[in-house]
């Protein structure tokens, strides 16, 4: 029996118009169509090459041209009928390897369309292929180029956390072998754009659960890093997401709280000379360290004063002012006294006569006084006190609700938007942060908090949205690019205006470095000249953290950023020819500038709760070169599956 790669037959063989052949319209029964007429079975058996087998089956089943967008759109409209035909034939001819492999080839071509691919997997496409792998193993012993198989592996990697049957199937694969072979194939001179892009997506989606296999194959990691030089935003996003996934399992949790006791112990000491010079250039009195020390002193004086005068209104005014000055304005402590036996400080046992025992409990008590008086402006202060208390209680949702109600009364209060920016939903966070930055009643601390929240969440939304976009024609593409540009602009503002010792400086720098790389793409100098100033700032930020004896956790962003920076030059050198070939075969995408009117309009649409909702199938079809079915079966070999 002739295998793949043979010459194509000449003119198509004429077939008699039998009753079976006339039952090709969508309205006819799938049961009849699943019975391939004898003349077609004979021609399939004599076909040279798997592409010809697929052509014969497409002709018989009346399936539109799968290499064109118009053909794929027709499949969208008739998917159920086409699926019934193919599924019935697959079951009927489960021992006929030629028909079975031809049907899988049709499925493979359909996988080039994201929506059709999802529908196939929902119908159990993977389970059927898995049950027939015995057919593929004798046919191919060597793994060769086969782009159309990669969408299958991509989908396996993408859905493994959601579908237990897919998880089981993925575990049967030797993913170390898959990663090695896919990496080898996309490096070959004849690798198509389709193979390179889907290979990148497979590696990206496999990176989290197969990180050890990828670390053991540095070339695969280098490929993701080098892919950041693609001319297409979607490819760069896929590769950056892949690098981030590599470090998800081994990353440490970011430090949310500050060890204030240790911080102030070291803050009383002189900082190293180079750090003092940095703060001096910025303005020592504007530095976060000095503001925190000043706030601590003011808080201590206010607490000692309320012990004497019992004036909760006066205390509330001071606390509401301190809360918008620094993140750790209210220490999580209580009144203390000295143990006469040991001389150590301990929680006070005497009755203070105040309606609170811990400092945080003072917040709602002072807020209650404000609400009772209802003086002009004091309801805002009451909300600020309640929000801070709820934040310290880790009840972020309740804090956001107080902020939402406060905005109805005073839409210019930035602290209310800040409360909502602490929620988990990136879209809600970004919308609140951007609106908060426009509020008139604000402070430098709130501005910087909103900026860093905007950077992080716009960056996350950009990664999510662009990875889902199929091409520059997809509305998601415009929205994703707008997110990246917003994050880039806000990160630069933060670096230019925030105190050098701001504790969020490191995280903003991680994003700033990654955004610079993904936005500049192929225009970035291989020696990373354009981001050296940010790398220097990151080193200085680390020095500030160490000077106050605070931890520097190896977060996912930190590890990914470091890996890209350290491996960028070597990765570009190794994969330069492949990326150049990919770029030469890619369509030119619209040039985007951070301050362009288009970017601003897309972002404003998002902020105003408008959505770009054109989800037509035609715009979800990725523009890829023609996919040849023979290439798929060469990857379905015994070595991989």
Short note summarizing the structure:
This is Set and mynd domain-containing protein 3. This protein is mainly α and 641 residues long.
Topology:
Elements: H1 30-33, H2 38-46, H3 50-60, H4 69-77, H5 79-92, H6 97-110, H7 114-122, H8 125-131, H9 133-136, H10 150-159, H11 164-171, H12 175-187, H13 193-206, H14 211-215, H15 218-226, H16 233-246, H17 260-267, H18 273-282, H19 288-309, H20 312-323, E1 336-338, E2 345-347, H21 362-373, H22 378-392, H23 396-409, H24 414-420, H25 426-436, H26 444-468, H27 475-497, H28 505-520, H29 532-547, H30 556-584, H31 597-607, H32 617-620, H33 630-635
Antiparallel strand pairs: 1-2
Protein name: Set and mynd domain-containing protein 3
Region (Disordered): 1-26
Describe the structure.
The protein is mainly α and 641 residues long. The protein has a domain at 38-215. It has helices at residues 30-33, 38-46, 50-60, 69-77, 79-92, 97-110, 114-122, 125-131, 133-136, 150-159, 164-171, 175-187, 193-206, 211-215, 218-226, 233-246, 260-267, 273-282, 288-309, 312-323, 362-373, 378-392, 396-409, 414-420, 426-436, 444-468, 475-497, 505-520, 532-547, 556-584, 597-607, 617-620, 630-635, and strands at 336-338, 345-347. The protein has a two-stranded antiparallel ribbon with strand order 1-2. Helix 15 (218-226) packs across helix 30 and helix 26 packs antiparallel against helix 27. The longest helix has 29 residues, at 556-584. It is elongated, with a radius of gyration of 31 Å. The two termini are 23 Å apart. Mean pLDDT is 80; it is low at 1-34, 136-151 and 610-641.
């Amino acid at each position: 029996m002739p295998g793949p790669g043979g010459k194509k037959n000449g003119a198509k063989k004429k077939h008699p118009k039998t009753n079976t052949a006339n039952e090709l319209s969508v309205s006819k029964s799938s049961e009849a169509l699943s019975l391939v007429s004898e003349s077609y079975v004979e021609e399939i058996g004599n076909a040279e090459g798997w592409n010809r087998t697929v052509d014969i089956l497409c002709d018989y089943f009346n399936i539109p041209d799968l290499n064109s967008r118009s053909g794929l759109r027709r499949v969208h409209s008739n998917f159920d009928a086409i699926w019934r035909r193919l599924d019935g034939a697959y079951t009927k001819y489960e021992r006929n390897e030629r028909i079975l492999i031809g049907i899988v080839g049709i499925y493979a071509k359909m996988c080039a369309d994201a929506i059709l691919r999802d529908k196939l997997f929902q119908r159990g496409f993977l389970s059927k292929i898995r049950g027939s792998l015995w057919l593929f193993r004798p046919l191919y012993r060597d793994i060769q180029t086969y782009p159309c198989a990669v969408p299958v592996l991509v989908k396996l990697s993408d859905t493994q956390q959601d579908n237990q049957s897919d998880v089981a199937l993925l575990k049967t694969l030797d993913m170390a072998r898959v990663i090695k072979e896919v990496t080898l194939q996309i490096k070959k001179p004849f690798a198509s754009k389709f193979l390179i892009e889907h290979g990148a997506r497979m590696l990206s989606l496999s990176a989290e659960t197969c990180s050890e296999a990828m670390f053991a194959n540095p070339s695969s990691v280098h490929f993701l890093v080098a892919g950041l030089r693609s001319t297409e935003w979607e490819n760069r996003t896929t590769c950056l997401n892949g690098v981030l996934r590599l470090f998800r399992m081994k990353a440490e949790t970011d430090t949310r709280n500050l060890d204030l006791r240790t911080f102030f112990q070291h803050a009383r000491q002189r900082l190293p000379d180079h750090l003092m010079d940095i703060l001096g250039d910025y303005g020592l009195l504007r530095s976060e360290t000095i503001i925190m020390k000043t706030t601590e002193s003011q808080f201590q004086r206010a607490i000692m004063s309320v012990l004497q005068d019992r004036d909760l209104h006066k205390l509330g005014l001071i606390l509401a002012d301190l809360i918008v000055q620094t993140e750790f304005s209210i220490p999580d402590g209580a009144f203390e006294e000295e143990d006469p036996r040991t001389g150590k400080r301990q929680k006070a046992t005497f009755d203070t006569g105040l309606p609170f025992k811990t400092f945080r409990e003072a917040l709602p008590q002072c807020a209650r006084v404000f609400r009772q008086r209802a003086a002009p402006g004091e309801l805002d202060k009451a909300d600020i006190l309640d929000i801070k208390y709820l934040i310290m209680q880790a009840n972020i949702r309740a804090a956001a609700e107080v902020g939402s109600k406060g905005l109805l009364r005073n839409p210019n209060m930035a602290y209310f938007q800040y409360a909502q920016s602490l929620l988990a939903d990136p879209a809600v966070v970004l919308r609140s942060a951007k609106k908060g930055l426009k509020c008139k009643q604000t402070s430098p601390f709130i501005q910087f908090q909103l900026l860093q929240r905007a950077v992080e969440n716009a960056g996350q939304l950009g990664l999510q949205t662009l990875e889902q976009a199929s091409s520059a024609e997809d509305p998601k593409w415009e929205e994703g690019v707008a997110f990246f540009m917003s994050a880039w602009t806000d990160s630069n503002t933060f670096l230019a205006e925030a105190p050098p010792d701001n504790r969020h400086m490191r995280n903003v720098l991680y994003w700033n470095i990654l955004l610079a790389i993904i936005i500049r793409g192929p225009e970035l100098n291989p020696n990373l000249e354009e981001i050296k100033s940010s790398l220097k700032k990151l080193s200085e930020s680390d020095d500030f953290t160490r000077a106050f004896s605070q931890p520097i956790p190896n977060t996912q962003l930190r590890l990914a950023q470091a890996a890209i920076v350290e491996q960028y030059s070597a990765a570009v050198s190794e994969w330069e020819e492949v990326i150049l070939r990919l770029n030469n075969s890619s369509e030119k995408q619209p040039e985007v500038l951070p301050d362009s009117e288009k970017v601003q309009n897309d972002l404003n649409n998002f902020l105003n709760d408008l959505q770009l909702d054109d989800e037509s199938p035609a715009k979800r079809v990725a523009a890829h070169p023609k996919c040849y079915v023979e290439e798929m079966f060469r990857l379905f070999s015994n070595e991989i599956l």
